[in-house]
Amino acid sequence: MMSHEAFVFISYAATAAVLLGLLAFTLADGRARKRELAELEAQGIRRRSQAVQGGKS
Amino acid sequence: MFWTGSPPFLAVRSGDRMRATATKLKGRRGDSVLFDDISFSVGRGEALVVTGPNGAGKSTLLRMLAGLLAADSGSFTLQGDDGADLPVAEFAHYLGHRNAMKRELRVSENLSFWQRFQRPEDGQGLSVDAAIEAVGLSGVAHLPFGYLSAGQQRRIALARLLVARRPLWLLDEPTAALDSRSDRLFADLVHAHLAEGGLAIAATHQPLGLDRVIPLELTGIHRAATGAGEVW
Amino acid sequence: MFWTGSPPFLAVRSGDRMRATATKLKGRRGDSVLFDDISFSVGRGEALVVTGPNGAGKSTLLRMLAGLLAADSGSFTLQGDDGADLPVAEFAHYLGHRNAMKRELRVSENLSFWQRFQRPEDGQGLSVDAAIEAVGLSGVAHLPFGYLSAGQQRRIALARLLVARRPLWLLDEPTAALDSRSDRLFADLVHAHLAEGGLAIAATHQPLGLDRVIPLELTGIHRAATGAGEVW
Amino acid sequence: MTDTTVSQGWFTGLANPTRFLALSGKLLPWLAAASAITLVVGLYMSFAAPEDYQQGITVRIMFIHVPAAWLAMMCYSVMAVAALGTLVWRHPLADVAAKSALPIGAAFTFLSLLTGSLWGRPMWGTWWVWDARLTSVFVLFLMYLGLMALHKAMDDPARAARPAAVLTLVGFINIPIIKFSVDWWNTLHQPASVMRLDGPTIHPTLLYPLLVMAISFTLIFFTLHFMAMRNEILRRRVQAMRRQAAQSIGGGAIGGGAIGGGETR
Amino acid sequence: MMALLKRDLAIATRSGGAAMLGVLFFLAVVAVIPFGIGPDLNLLSRIGPAILWIGALLASLLGLDRLFQADREDGSLDMLVMQDWFGLVATVFVKCLAHWLATGLPLVLAAPLLGLLMNMSATSTGAVMLTLVAGTPAISFIGAVGAAIAVALPRGGLLVSILILPLAIPILIFGVSASYAAVTDPDPFLPPFMILSAIALFFAALGPVAAAAALKGASD
Amino acid sequence: MMALLKRDLAIATRSGGAAMLGVLFFLAVVAVIPFGIGPDLNLLSRIGPAILWIGALLASLLGLDRLFQADREDGSLDMLVMQDWFGLVATVFVKCLAHWLATGLPLVLAAPLLGLLMNMSATSTGAVMLTLVAGTPAISFIGAVGAAIAVALPRGGLLVSILILPLAIPILIFGVSASYAAVTDPDPFLPPFMILSAIALFFAALGPVAAAAALKGASD
Ligand code: HEM
Ligand SMILES: Nc1ncnc2c1ncn2[C@@H]1O[C@H](COP(=O)(O)OP(=O)(O)OP(=O)(O)O)[C@@H](O)[C@H]1O
Ligand SMILES: Nc1ncnc2c1ncn2[C@@H]1O[C@H](COP(=O)(O)OP(=O)(O)OP(=O)(O)O)[C@@H](O)[C@H]1O
Ligand SMILES: [Mg+2]
Ligand SMILES: [Mg+2]
């Protein structure tokens, strides 16, 4: 039987892990998308309305 | 004339104004505009033939006319003889690339299903046997549809148009897989349909053997969608 | 010539004796004999074109040649250059009415699957991209096959013949749904195949645009099976 | 293809993806900072809180269990509103909002299940019971995952939007079931003590840390959601540009050129 | 519409043997449960209604994903969608009905046999049959929504089940509790049965409409 | 052959991550059970192995009938049949393998989690996993025969379910009884497990050959 502290600790650790994981995934995803956009732009493909609405975000 | 039996309810009378009218239709697939600003008008006894290279958008156009795809803009209406709008879905037959028949059911079962499903209460049309006869396949009625050859299957799919009479025919490559005799037979069918006051719109790569048609050519040159289409 | 890269392993050399030979083939469907006593011989660089009305038995014949149906009697053999019998299944491509592609997979995935599945270890053939290019559809490689139009789908099905090189082509209505430009493109493909020592057997309703062909016409007149065929 | 047609109006103007990118870009740093600050304060308060006389130290699990459970339900509610947006206004940004909320909602639901289990073991003596509250949360988790699977199954986001929205709305009945399951069926799980019509019945020393943590989790949710929405917009932008590029290479498409059709008679 | 019903039934009985498959699966479920709880006839008869209901729910999932897919593949779906809104809703309704007749009804009819195997009393078996008659159509109707959503997916089977099962839970709950209420004394049978019927009616109204909407949207 | 495996897996995963779908499906099935038989943890843990096995059987049955039918409808089957005998047998084997990988394996891997939810002991969960590893491929292999026969008969797959499910039921029964034998004391685990493995091996050898023969004969 685990001590009660262990249950509390696992709860907080798991929460931290899940939330940080979600954050890391989201950041990595965003970075990958930006990279793809940059690649496309390097190939000279841009959004048609880019001139009007302005650039990458 | 092979439409025996019931009087030709579609027969052209003076003053008949049934018309299928497209106004500035625009069709898009994904991000490219296949066609834009397509307008035409087809009246009783007239046939419109859509041509164009593979991928031009013929099937897309026909599916829009049938109401299976929403047009990007523009409209297509069918007006009755009294000038009122008719629902295309109930007054048009659509024959697509696929035959809409169940392989495991007999030819006669398939056709009589569509007859009962598509013929309005007071509607007319050939009997199943007469329709099979009309496409020159008497004798196959009892075979499962899957046993037929490709051309025979297509001819049975054409027979569906005969068992429930509807004024507007939308045909997507109706003569695919047909031999030359059946090509003529098909031309006769359409002629008879037009003669009785029907309307037809067909997409095709092959001459259909019809003599008086309104041509509509899609160039197959697509352009990228802009404006409203570019959301992202 | 679009077969770039590897040397044309099929190139006709004097003394090449690869031949596809049918002897007294008899085909039956149900209780009727579709054809009987069909014999022909096709050598390198030659094409046999089977014609006949719908339901004549063209597809049945081709499926027999491919080994997908058992012949009622008679035989079909493919002899290699050294006169030895080759297994048809491994040396022939069969293109049926249906395209043998998965709608949900991308065009390139479909083709590279067939490439790896049908190309023998040491075999040759175009790369997937080159094959797509050869049928004039570069740019669609990444699209799901189901997104293509009917004619584009058929052209991709033709591209399958190019990604794995096999000497004998069995084609069932190869040009169905093709536009006239693609018809010519197809004729060029077959020409190239023949020029490099290939053999082709095609069933069709439309002129294929090939100039030197061996014709074979099925009459479409079937007779009831008798004798050995009539068991009951 | 009316689903991508943007009609004009203040609402759609505000929800224009490009404008959203600009706005959320400005807002995000503030949101992130606020989440971080409230989280630190909340954590400090939860560990400073006295132990419960009944539950001992395990009461600290409450400070993450309860906010996670609330967020799991709130996230689904946000999705349901977005689904209405998809179905009624047909705005593509609504679909983006619904889709990108999915993994976050699934994560919070998972956390509430996990911390609940970890709490249940010492308190009830079992990891899991199939009572109404727990099971309905489990079903919520399944619905998140099912919707994710549905989005993944359709490669074209425009085609997944409406079916997913329909399903989201149909599944919304589960939310009141979760909320009131403890009242409708007698279960092991304890009934509401904070969000009650007659005011909270929980002791302030426990209530305040709980509320701060709840605020913090809510801010974290919005931070992550905005980030995910931005990613999703960029993903769709890349997809659109790719398709467009491919079409201009193959298929003979030329920009803005003459196209098929025209008057025929 | 009768024509559609007849056609779908003809196809169901001719190929696939959906009815048989459902009943056999049902039988398999009932056959393995005793292994778990041992030869305790008392317990068996107690959980019998629940097992029958679970079996029926799961068996209904078989073949559900093909409800519209087969029609889509041969092109018939175009003609079905090419109707006015009421026509389409009615079509979906009839297709659900055909699905139920081919898979649900056989289960209802097989219930007495299975009740025997589970050592259930006649009252109990009767109650289960009654609730199945009311409940299984609801599964078909709500299942149609999943089938319509997954119509374009190659292997929608699992996905459809996943999407549908959570929604089918209320049907199961009230079906089982009505069955139990019929045999345990203090509980009245009618209230849960009425709720079950209400759910069934609700799904019969909602399912076809939602499925029709999904089909209209899916057409391409 | 690797290409075929890859393609079939790709098609399976296109519809939303096959592995995840399998697990989800299983979770949904397991979640539904307590609604039926009630939240009695004791009872649940007792019927747990049976539930897991029923879920596995159901997951295998969903979509099994399409194993060759999809290939037939798009014409691919012709190319598969147009191989020498060994090629065809290998092809069938690989297709079964792909089917198992996409539907059976995820269930095996998810079993521990589900065991937890069903309050099953570690031994019990382990035994179920072991029997599932041995048994679920057998269902795919014998199911292939049914799928091949179904492809062959243009209008009468009725045979399929009648032939195949009775063959699959022994797998289910031995799988479940071996799982129980592992936890209930007097019964030895090995005998039923050996029988299960023997059945699996037999079906793995017989299934592809029989299915290949049916496919060869079916081609028309
Ligand atoms: C896996 C197991 C569990 C799940 C899924 C779960 C789920 C939930 C949910 C959804 C809520 C929010 C309810 C609302 O807003 O009305 C909640 C609140 C709460 N839960 Fe749990 N719970 C679990 C286990 C536990 C355990 C073991 C305990 C303590 C012994 C517990 C104590 C609480 C408390 C104190 C609240 C706050 C109620 C309030 O003040 O409104 N939960 N839980
Ligand atoms: N479901 C779809 N999703 C996305 N794009 C599609 C879809 N169907 C067709 N397209 C694309 O739209 C274009 C037009 O297709 P359509 O089928 O209308 O052509 P078509 O003129 O009928 O050609 P064909 O003569 O080959 O039948 C093609 O480039 C095709 O790739
Ligand atoms: N699977 C089958 N079972 C029984 N009979 C069949 C089967 N397939 C075809 N037939 C019959 O065999 C005859 C020949 O069919 P086949 O498909 O060979 O014709 P075809 O020459 O290819 O015609 P088409 O030009 O229409 O493709 C037809 O009369 C058809 O009804
Ligand atoms: Mg077309
Ligand atoms: Mg043919």
What does this structure look like?
The complex is a heterohexamer, with one copy of chain A (57 residues), two copies of chain B (232 residues), one copy of chain D (265 residues) and two copies of chain E (220 residues). By secondary structure, chain A is an all-alpha fold. Chain A has two helices and no strands. The relative contact order of chain D is 0.15. Chain D has 265 residues and is an all-alpha fold. In chain D, 72% of the residues lie in helices and 0% in strands. Chain D has helices at 10-14, 17-48, 62-89, 92-124, 132-153, 157-171, 174-184, 204-249. The longest helix of chain D is centred in the C-terminal third of the chain and has 46 residues, at 204-249. With 220 residues, chain E is an all-alpha fold. Chain E has nine helices and no strands. In chain E, α3 (41-61) packs parallel to α7 (122-149). The longest helix of chain E has 33 residues, at 85-117. Classes of the chains: A mainly alpha (57), B alpha/beta (232), D mainly alpha (265), E mainly alpha (220). At the E-F interface, α2, α3 and α8 of E face α1, α2, α3, α4 and α8 of F. One magnesium ion binds next to α1 of chain B.
Q: Summed up, what is this model?
A:
Helices cover 75% and strands 0% of the residues of chain A. Chain A has two helices and no strands. The C terminus of chain A is likely disordered.
Produce the secondary structure layout.
The complex is a heterohexamer, with one copy of chain A (57 residues), two copies of chain B (232 residues), one copy of chain D (265 residues) and two copies of chain E (220 residues).
Chain A: H1 4-42, H2 50-53
Chain B: E1 19-29, E2 32-43, E3 47-51, H1 58-65, E4 73-79, E5 85-86, H2 88-91, E6 92-95, H3 107-118, H4 128-134, H5 150-163, E7 168-172, H6 180-195, E8 199-203, E9 214-217, E10 223-224
Parallel strand pairs in B: 3-8, 3-9, 6-7, 7-8
Antiparallel strand pairs in B: 1-2, 1-4, 2-10, 4-5
Helix pairs in contact in B: 3-5, 4-5
Chain D: H1 10-14, H2 17-48, H3 62-89, H4 92-124, H5 132-153, H6 157-171, H7 174-184, H8 204-249
Helix pairs in contact in D: 2-8, 3-4, 3-6, 3-8, 4-5, 4-6, 4-8, 5-6, 5-7
The complex binds protoporphyrin IX containing FE, adenosine-5'-triphosphate (2 copies) and magnesium ion (MG) (2 copies).
